[in-house]
Amino acid sequence: MTVAEITALILQLGPIALEFFIKIESLLNLGPDEKANIASAIASANSSNADTQAKIAAWMQANGFTTKVTFVKAN
Amino acid sequence: MKHFATTILSIALLLSVGCIHKTGGTVTPWERVTTDNAVFTQSLNTIEQGTEAAAVSGVIANDKAAEVLGFVKLASQDDQQITAILDKGGSVSLADYNTIQGLISQLSASGQELVTSGGIGVKNPLTQQNIAQDIQNATALASALLTDVQAVKGAN
Fold first, then answer.
1. In this predicted model, what pLDDT tens digit does every residue of B18-42 receive, in sequence order?
2. What is the domain extent for residue A20?
3. In a domain? residue A11
4. B119, B11 in Cβ contact below 8 A?
5. Fewest CB atoms within 10 A around its CB: which of A4, A27, B82, B129?
6. What is the Cα–Cα distance from B70 to A28, expressed in whole angstroms?
7. Are residues A18 and B22, on separate chains, in Cβ contact within 8 Å?
8. Domain locations in chain B as residue ranges
């Protein structure tokens, strides 16, 4: 993915996505240590996925969705 | 407030033109692929937050929000597997590449099915675009990630 593509996607996120931008910006400012950079990116991905799944589980439970949600096809 | 935030975002983007960059060397293919993977996970997190906010404000029905969140959960689980493969580091075998390709194909098909099903043309308050576009962006990011992984594999 090119820098231009990433920048275009960030721009599409709009003004409220500053937190998102700051997280990405910090990821993209890589230091000299390759292993540290990779470990940081992997940790960020794992943390983000865990956070996403925990919030979804909480929302599903709070809203009474206890069974597996399936996609509904268009009629 | 909106204009002010837009200005700040624009300035920050201008200052960061040229990234991905690093001090003291070239960005390696592994740094690029793991960074782009992290960007993808963050996009999923943003869809999750925005969808829940839209449901709370009543612009999207809970049933539809649950479908979107079901997709995001699936995508997040797929990405956990992808991240675990990337975490092995060093190289991407043909088997690993095929696994990642299969996961991203599944994710893209599910995303397309969800978009086609309709009812998600409502604005995500976090991204200021509609949720269908968010999902299409996420699947585009996943496809870009696969291209990155292919480049790493080719460099082996």
1. 356 676 678 888 988 998 899 899 9
2. 1-30
3. yes
4. no
5. A4
6. 29
7. no
8. 25-155
